[in-house]
Design goal:
By secondary structure, the protein is mostly helical. The chain folds into two domains: about 50 residues; about 150 residues, no CATH class. Helices cover about 65% and strands about 0% of the residues. The protein has eight helices and no strands. α3 crosses α4. The protein is globular, with a radius of gyration of 20 Å. InterPro entries: Lysozyme-like_dom_sf.
Length: about 200
């Protein structure tokens, strides 16, 4: 009986120890990725993700809304200074989303969110679209358990901007306020990184 009880304790301790090591390794790798992201040298960082077959796409109603908003955005005037700031920063990082700077700013204007927010989150989550978990999902939108797959950058920008506008309507308007819902695992670190990138635009 003592031997069986001792074996259970040993297994439990081994499990706890493995969990602590895994958590430490995960946090350390996030620090390394952020360092390389900010320094602009992501080539030496390899981010692998397990493939999850449970993906999300836009519903039929969301698809109609996306098309309606996109037509409206085509006619919208936008602050070109903001567009240049976003484009310049994303281009300096070699981010694919640099080509979509005007759409990023117009969509932010349409949904009443900070024009830098969606671009900044894309840098933290995927180096501005270089390393996406799912097609065109530069934001980790939907999380790792049910990530979204988009048909285009525009569809993705629309969906993320609209989603963040819902945070805004709940009174969550800064990265620090948004972080616990957007990234509950490391909210303070995530918010600090997003704020830093926003300050560079």
């Amino acid at each position: 009986m003592k031997r069986k009880y001792s074996s259970k304790i040993n297994n439990f301790l081994l499990y706890v120890f493995a969990l602590i090591l895994f958590t430490g390794a995960l946090l350390k790798s996030q620090e390394r990725v952020f360092f390389y992201l900010i320094s602009g040298n992501i080539s030496s960082v390899f981010a692998s993700s397990s493939v999850n077959s449970r993906t999300q796409i836009l519903s039929a109603d969301d698809e109609i809304d996306y098309r309606t908003v996109s037509r409206k955005l085509e006619l919208m005037d936008v602050d070109q200074i903001k567009v240049r700031k976003v484009r310049a920063y994303l281009a300096s990082r070699g981010a694919p989303l640099a080509a979509k700077a005007e759409y990023l700013v117009k969509t932010a204007q349409e949904f009443g969110i900070d024009y830098r927010l969606v671009a900044a989150i894309s840098i933290i989550e995927s180096s501005g679209g270089k390393y996406t978990y799912r097609p065109y999902n530069a934001w980790g939108w939907g999380g790792s358990m049910s990530p979204y797959t988009f048909k285009s950058w525009e569809e993705a920008i629309y969906t993320v901007s609209r989603g963040l506008s819902r945070y805004y309507s709940s009174g969550l308007v800064t990265p620090r306020q948004i972080a616990p819902r957007y990234n509950p695992h490391t909210p303070n670190e995530w918010a600090r990184k997003v704020e830093y990138v926003m300050s560079l635009m």
